[in-house]
Design brief:
Blueprint lengths: L40 E6 L5 E6 L3 E6 L25 E2 L11 E6 L2 E6 L5 E6 L5 H5 L11 E6 L6 E5 L4 E4 L4 H13 L1 H24 L6
Antiparallel strand pairs: 1-2, 2-3, 4-5, 5-6, 6-7, 8-9, 9-10
Protein name: WD40 repeat-like protein
Keywords: WD repeat
GO biological process, one term: proteasome-mediated ubiquitin-dependent protein catabolic process
Length: about 220
């Protein structure tokens, strides 16, 4: 019986891969050594077309790799990502039919919130917190991290524009865009509510927008 063997390893310091500078292997790093993460790696998944591999680790980094060459794509997602899971932690990559042409969107379970990134640029597009979870609850008191009721898993529903999140408190949540019908209902309710109620709605929405904007800009230090 043939034994399995390792043909090479992913190296976070390697942005050239097996092809090297000239496509012939010049200056390529040795494939027998190197590390993909500075801590334990607890998540590995493919992109839909199989051309890239995405890995997550306890160094609180997500890395994207070219599968043909093994090179690090050098996508940088910033310092806000958290990964304290002892079990598997897998981001979700939206299928191509749900993304703009040439775009790849990644959803990352970041304790009590979901971060939405451009997979290759590393740009933070959105951040979503579970309903009923405040910023203070998400991060605890005095800058302490609070992992109770954190997001433990994400999964995309095939053939739809919808994904689900599992939480450590036993709750499963569905995330999907608001439909045109729901938007029309909101508009009708606004029209029927009168000027005073409209102003009240506007003030509440503005207050929420201001809070969200302040929170996303706030710098948090974890000790």
């Amino acid at each position: 019986m043939a034994h399995a063997g390792c043909l090479g390893v992913l190296d976070m310091e390697d942005s050239l891969g097996v092809w090297g500078d000239d496509g012939l292997g010049t200056n390529a790093r040795p494939s027998a050594r190197g590390k993909a993460h500075m801590g334990a790696c607890n998540g590995v998944l493919w992109t839909e077309n199989g051309r890239h591999l995405v890995t997550a680790g306890h160094d609180e980094r997500v890395r994207v790799w070219h599968t043909e060459s093994g090179a690090n794509a050098l996508a940088h997602f910033g310092p806000i990502m958290k990964n304290t899971h002892l079990s598997t932690l897998l981001p979700v990559i939206a299928p191509e039919y749900a993304s703009s042409p040439g775009g790849h969107i990644m959803f990352y379970p970041n304790e009590k919130e979901i971060l939405v990134f451009d997979l290759f640029e590393g740009t933070l597009l959105k951040r979503r917190r579970a309903p009923g979870v405040t910023f203070a609850q998400a991060h605890g008191s005095a800058g302490q991290r609070n992992v109770r009721n954190s997001i433990t898993s994400l999964v995309w529903r095939a053939g739809n524009i919808e994904f689900y999140s599992a939480h450590s408190d036993g709750v499963i949540r569905s995330w999907k865009p608001r439909t045109a019908e729901e938007a029309e209902v909101d508009e009708d309710e606004t029209v029927e509510g009168g000027d005073e109620e409209n102003e009240s709605r506007k003030r509440k929405r503005q207050a929420l927008d201001d809070v969200f904007r302040d929170l996303t800009k706030q710098k948090i230090t974890f000790t």
